[in-house]
TrEMBL record:
It is a multi-pass membrane protein. The keyword Hydrolase does not apply. The chain crosses the membrane at residues 17-40, 52-72, 103-122, 142-164, 170-189, 221-244, 250-268, 280-297, 366-387. Keywords: Cell membrane, Membrane, Transmembrane, Transmembrane helix. It is found in: Cell membrane. Pfam families: MFS_1. GO terms for cellular component: plasma membrane. This is Putative MFS family arabinose efflux permease. Coiled coil: none annotated. GO terms for molecular function: transmembrane transporter activity. PANTHER family: INTEGRAL MEMBRANE EFFLUX PROTEIN-RELATED, STAPHYLOFERRIN A TRANSPORTER. The keyword ATP-binding does not apply.
């Protein structure tokens, strides 16, 4: 297979539309959750409720991923994505100006968030249609970098909007971004029919297809290979703030981690041929874990930043799995398959942060980070049979 280039990817109008609307979505959501957290804290003075408000937008991924994902294949993708942006805009305006009590604000975010995995799945499933072959893998790489960049930009912009216009103004800004994204999607994407058909109720069909996907050993292995190394990474990153003890120092290390991820995605996506990219999946998954073990030596901020950047460059291991995943799932349930992939990843990262956080209470943050790194190495070794491409496994005389 011939490798694609970034120029070829961005030459496709539909991808430019998906890319721009995705950046608006991620940046807007970062502003929304920050503004909602500040608004709840201003009203209640409760740090716990403020933290709950910040996380409320991500919790529905568990429920939506389990019960609603079949909608991503049963409905036209453009209509789903536009609906998602309209729901976000209306939700933000209600949060900003409806004068809802705190419990109603949190309930509104949770209920509307149940459909977020469906909207994400529709977008992800359209990408192979827009970018065939290796261009799809490169497109995923570009969106991964855009996601990290948009989160950072969204948080920075959110802080500025909060200072100037307060939480309500920041929420209104997110509503405006969502409205712009809806117009961009509606005007820029052509109509595509639904990928699948409704053979049962949405919940029943979602459960049935999830079981079908997880029962397929090859698909299950690729899902686990995408989830488990990132569970260990999330656990390690969750301990950076308590390890350094200062928000400013932790910010430097986490920014270095984001930079390492972007550099790895760019280098592997741009300069590695498709076959090499797949052969690199296993060593890069190991690289994702090894540097965190170095925190057992108690590095200062500078070395901690270097270790974090080197480790997160290994996240590009996922690029070598993308083509195989698309080819392994039936086209009529591709939306649900991508939704299951992202929902499991979100859930796993939350679980990893919680588990390593609990461990950090017992043995200290630095030791917990090192344990997370060691666990990541063991996970990569256990998944070697999936991470290594079939041709490489068949050529190994030890197998």
């Amino acid at each position: 297979m011939q490798g694609a280039t970034f120029g070829e990817v961005f030459a496709v109008k539909e991808f430019r539309v998906l890319f721009g609307s995705f950046a608006l979505l991620i940046g807007g959501d970062s502003i929304k959750m920050l503004a909602l957290s500040v608004l709840v804290y201003a009203r209640t003075g409760s740090a716990g409720l403020s933290a709950a408000a910040y996380m409320a937008g991500w919790l529905p991924f568990i429920v939506g991923g389990l019960f609603l994902l079949s909608l991503a294949d049963r409905l036209p993708p453009r209509a789903l994505m536009v609906t998602g942006e309209v729901v976000r805009a209306v939700t933000c305006l209600l949060l900003a100006y409806a004068g809802l009590p705190v419990w109603a604000m949190l309930a509104l975010v949770l209920v509307t968030g149940l459909f977020t995995p469906v909207f994400f799945a529709a977008r992800a499933a359209m990408l192979p249609d827009v970018l065939p072959g290796d261009a799809f893998v490169l497109g995923r790489s570009v969106l991964n970098v855009a996601s990290a960049s948009a989160q950072i930009a969204g948080l920075a912009a959110g802080g500025a909007f909060l200072a100037v216009a307060g939480p309500s103004g920041a929420l209104a800004t997110t509503a405006g971004l969502a409205a712009v994204a809806a117009v961009v999607l509606r005007a820029g994407l052509p109509y595509r029919p639904a990928r699948g058909t409704a053979r049962a109720g949405a919940v029943r069909q979602t459960l049935r297809v999830n079981r079908r996907l997880l029962a397929d050993g090859h698909v299950r292995g690729l899902l686990l290979a995408g989830w488990l190394p990132c569970v260990c990474l999330a656990g390690a990153e969750a301990m950076v703030v308590p390890y350094l003890g200062g928000q400013g120092q932790a910010g430097v290390v986490l920014a270095a981690a984001a930079g390492g991820m972007a550099a790895g995605e760019f280098a592997v996506g741009r300069f590695a041929a498709p076959g090499l990219r797949e052969r690199l999946s296993f060593p890069l998954a190991v690289l994702l874990a090894v540097p965190w073990v170095g925190f057992a030596l108690g590095p200062g901020m500078a070395w901690a930043a270097v270790l974090a950047a080197v480790a997160t460059a290994g996240l590009s291991y996922q690029l070598g799995l993308q083509r195989r995943f698309v080819e392994s799932v039936p086209e009529e349930v591709r939306g649900q398959a991508f939704g299951l992939q992202s929902s499991g990843l979100m859930t796993g990262q939350a679980a990893g942060a919680a588990l390593v956080g609990a461990l950090g209470e017992l043995i200290g943050p630095g030791a917990a980070i090192a344990v997370a790194g060691g666990a990541g190495i063991l996970v990569a070794l256990a998944l070697a049979g999936v991470l290594r491409p079939a041709a490489e496994r068949s050529a190994d005389p030890g197998r």
